[in-house]
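General statements about sequence and structure are easier to judge against a single worked case. In the encoding step, the backbone of a single protein was reduced to a row of integers, each denoting a local shape. The record that follows shows the chain in one-letter code together with its fold in token form.
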Amino acid sequence: MGSKEQKERSTAKIRVLDQDVALYSQREEDYISLTDIARYKNQERTDDLIRNWLRNRNTLEFLGIWEQLNNPNFNPVEFDGIKMQAGLNSFTLTPKQWIESTRAIGLVSKAGRYGGTYAHKDIAFEFASWVSVEFKLYLIKEFQRLKEEERKTLGWDIRRNLTKINYRIHTDAIQAHLIPAELSPKQTSLVYATEADVLNLALFGMTAAQWRDANPDKKGNIRDYAEVAQLVCLSNLENLNALFISEGLPQKERLERLNKIAIHQMTILTGDARMLR
């Protein structure tokens, strides 16, 4: 399977009981380094630990069931043959052999800088439990913390992108109707800032400068701290203000209209006009 089909990308590392553990995503699923988990128990014999784990009949049954539930291309005939040998003194199995013979996707062998054996998080947690119950619990805790941080970052990006939907329409209207050709760059920037504050006043009840004065310890700007509903409303106000500008309405009248619209939309979106602040 090619890299484009796998949709693989490097993700991150987490620190678990003083041990770095690498993660990456493949097919929108999270994979965790078994090699790094094994290092917690033995720095020098990680491959041996993973192979010993794979020799266990309970491990093979777990892997087989996981593949049957998640992998339509899994080879059950080869799996049955491997499972019959489990428990014999002569039986050995490497991750690569398991992957190639059964077409498994739960384990991945990677080469290069971040090489080693990786496993889907369901399987990695099982392996971590075999290595150390304590390590498994801390691994789950750190993994969940990472996922929560990623969700927060994604949520922030989505909220911010909402305001960009009509941003170009708004700035084009300002440029076309409010900025004479003879204005200097400094004067032009002031016009854009003033119109941005029309929206801030309509929605938040204060200008960007007033917010900064009231929140000297906060980084960013007023829109960075807005709720999702407020950013949805702000995107709508940008479009409406562009329309009002093209119609030649004075700024004072535009502000009054936009404020009424903001109150109405926020009441619909949240059921609480107090979201306007």
Strands lie at 9-16, 19-26, 29-33, 107-110, 116-120.
